[in-house]
Amino acid sequence: MAEIINGLEISKAIKLEVKEKLQTHYDEGKRKAKLSVIIVGNDSASHTYVRSIAKTMEANNVVCDIHMLDEETSEKEVIYLIENLNNDETVDGIFLQIPLPKHINSANVTENIHPAKDVDGLSPKNLGKLIVGRDCYVPCTPQGIMHLLKTTGIELEGKQAVMVGRSMSVGKPMVSLLEKENATVTLCHSKTKNLQEVTKQADILVVAVGRPHMITADYIKTGAVVIDVGINVDENGKIIGDVDFDDVFEKVSYITPVPRGVGPMTNAALLKNVLKAYER
Ligand code: NAP
Question: pTM of the full predicted structure?
Answer without folding.
Answer: 0.97
